[in-house]
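step 4 of 6: structure.
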Amino acid sequence: MSFTRLSATTTKAGVRAFSTARAQNYKVAILGAAGGIGQPCSLLMSQDPRVTHLSLFDVVNTPGVAADVSHNNFACKVTGHTGDAELEEALTGCDVVVIPAGVPRKPGMTRDDLFNTNAGIVKNLATGCAKYCPDAALCIISNPVNSTVPIASEVFKKHGVYNPRKIFGVTTLDVVRANKFVGDAKGTDPQKTHVPVIGGHAGITILPILSQVTPKAEFGDAERDALTTRIQNAGTEVVEAKAGTGSATLSMAFAGARFASNVLKGLDGEYNVECSYVQSDVTSAEYFSTPVVLGPRGMECNLGLPEMNDYEKKGLEALLPELKESIKKGVEFANKE
Ligand SMILES: NC(=O)C1=CN([C@@H]2O[C@H](COP(=O)(O)OP(=O)(O)OC[C@H]3O[C@@H](n4cnc5c(N)ncnc54)[C@H](O)[C@@H]3O)[C@@H](O)[C@H]2O)C=CC1
Ligand SMILES: O=C([O-])CC(=O)C(=O)O
């Protein structure tokens, strides 16, 4: 059901101006809502005016998180759901499902070390999505993203409901970090600095395309190497700083909410562009992150590879074997009974 909403804004001059905006009733679920990412992400999504029902699911602690978020003075209804028995209720009618369920890294671990635990969690939750909200857009945060997105996709294929326009691996944090680090280095506003980041979401599979930053900037070889390595290792930087208590949660909640809100904007007819890890034919890897246009059908089109210099082309060649291996591992896991 769609309706027209009147929204009020206050201009710098202090004049209240009214504008009409199209808005829909959107139900958004967060799976893993009681976790380090899930809680702040739930808070941020409750502030999105397009969200009229925020459904918070976890295996523990959702009543408390839902009660807490529901007291903020936003219009959206907030409900909490706990455990497999309540997954159907959590998912039915969802337009967007954000998935940060699963264990995070400790120092010394790679994202792939999380596979044994998180692959099964994502497979189970994706099965729920395929059954109860097959048309929803999935935003998958759980690591290793390079494998969990193929797992969810295979589950949807098995259920005969696969729509590659609507299964997204969230790589927005890599973009957020690249914009921040480059903005700080070049003295540009990080919010107005745009670095495409392509590939996947682990180590060298994260490939920032610094040659295409806007506003345009020049990098010496040493500066380019240092920035590329920092963007690729930024997750590890946080894991080490947190010293065994987890990985990035607040920056990830920010990035995840930005991505999910942009998916909602797209569904609502406001086309926009984000980098995301999606089923892809732009390289020899079956899943790959590039800038994509988000719109009413989910991914409207894939904008493909940005222009690259020789350094970045070498980075692309180097990342493909690792990325393809992670994809194969996810596909095989999903198809094993
Ligand atoms: N894509 C990205 O850029 C990033 C991904 N991550 C990943 O996000 C995941 C979550 O990280 P945190 O929130 O820090 O972990 P956390 O341990 O704080 O929270 C995870 C939550 O998932 C819940 N959970 C476990 N099994 C579940 C199931 N079957 N159904 C529903 N919920 C379940 C747990 O109860 C917990 O509340 C990790 O895999 C982490 O590696 C983290 C940062 C960035
Ligand atoms: O590094 C981790 O394990 C969590 C993550 O994906 C990130 O912060 O980019």
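step 5 of 6: annotate
 - Confidence is low (pLDDT under 50) at residues 1-22.
 - Residues 172-248+270-324 form a domain with the L-2-Hydroxyisocaproate Dehydrogenase; Chain A, domain 2 fold (CATH 3.90.110.10).
step 6 of 6: archive
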